[in-house]
Amino acid sequence: MLMQPELLEHELHRSRVYRILADAFRPxxxxxxxxxxxxxxxxxxxxxxxxxxAAGLPEAFTSAGGMExxxxxxxxxxxxxxLLPAPPYGSVYLESRRRIMGxxxxxVLEHYREMGMAMAETFKDAPDHVSAELEFMHALxxxxxxxxxxxxxxxxxxxxxxxxxxLRYHLGAWIPDFTAKVMEHAETRFYRLLGEITKRFIEExxxxxxxxxxxxxxxxxx
Length: 222
Known about the structure:
Elements: H1 4-24, H2 32-45, H3 51-55, H4 57-62, H5 67-79, H6 90-94, H7 103-114, H8 130-149, H9 153-169, H10 171-185, H11 189-218
Helix pairs in contact: 1-2, 1-8, 8-9, 9-11, 10-11
């Protein structure tokens, strides 16, 4: 079992993985390269099975032939204007009519509001865009890390429950279908690898959080 300082470091690595993945599902920019190098390091420290795949991500990013091929692939997969091979919105996968801005989107917004969070004015996409949901998980894990640092048992348990619920009913519920489409339809190696890494990491997170919630609920937090 991890000791308190090790556990805090573990959560910081988790939060950084979520943040980097959120950035990677935004329009590609040159500054992403350094973050991709760190992604492999964080996944290695977490002993994630995704770490080996992540090791090839920076090279896939730089060998794509500049930003233009990546931007073209990003737009084709996630933006349009034509039919999207891999729609990046949770509601498309969770709603029976596969629509954007459905009831599941409103529930995502409620999760954000409960944590006192709102969509940034600069964010022009739907609240259940993959980058927004990954960013939300980053924020939840940061709060968990702060609860560990201050030995706030109630805050820790609340954060764990929120993470587990959000993965179970939102991000983790649709990421398998979404990443399968990314891996199938991406024309660049970078997005194929990104899809695989995201799929594996979220699968591991769902399993680990389910175990943690049970353990923390049945035992004293500290």
